[in-house]
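Hey, quick one: can you model this chain's 3D structure?
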Amino acid sequence: WTDCISSGRLIFKVYPPLVIFRRCLSILEGTPFLLVILFTQLILRYPQTPRDHVSLSVEEEVKWMKFCRDAFSFESFERDSPPDDRTLIRDVAFYLLFRYDGPDREQLLNEADNCAISKEAVDRFSEEFFGRRIKVHQSVMGFEYVDGKYYPAGMDDHNFKTTHIQKFIDNGDETYTIEYDFYMVLEDELEGNVLAQLKPEEFVNAIHERPQDFPPPFAEGRILVKKVKEDGRERYIILENIK
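Sure thing. Here's the predicted structure for all 243 residues.
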């Protein structure tokens, strides 16, 4: 028993705690009560190992396809090196200008004022995606900041973009690692392209059933996200964005 407990953490790196618990039931029979308590506490206190690919419904996969597509347009960063204000401003403003399709898009983008984006809108979506607001609003590459608004300068992005979720990992601590393929079709190649013609739900079914019918991905990406619950609503903030 001493050897079993002292090497317990090593064992748990190889086998899930519940599996070990079941296999040790025969050992626990007749074991002093104190040792049973110690063994149970070791199981409860040791962090759960990540589960491999979680099966997603078509609806869930479509949701994460869109999330990963948007994340790919953001700058890469590692968890211990979060993006600064300038990076967040450009990422969020670019997302609002070319990716956001929510019902309040017309209110967020003032077409009568050269598609100006308010600093409040940038703060809102910086909080939504990255869990924090902008500390110092300022002009950045592609967007001039004037009187509390961001004005885009000569940008264009009408290429078709989508993603395919390769692996969705529940890390067991309210964080999730998502690995995905990124696909892009240039604007002048959209006509007749199978990727651009399929609806998201159709794409999910087709690429699972006939992956050989699709071209290689343009790139690959990985994100680490954390589930946040606020005001009865769940959302996910990006802790790491690798591509």
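One thing worth noting: The longest strand covers residues 219-230.
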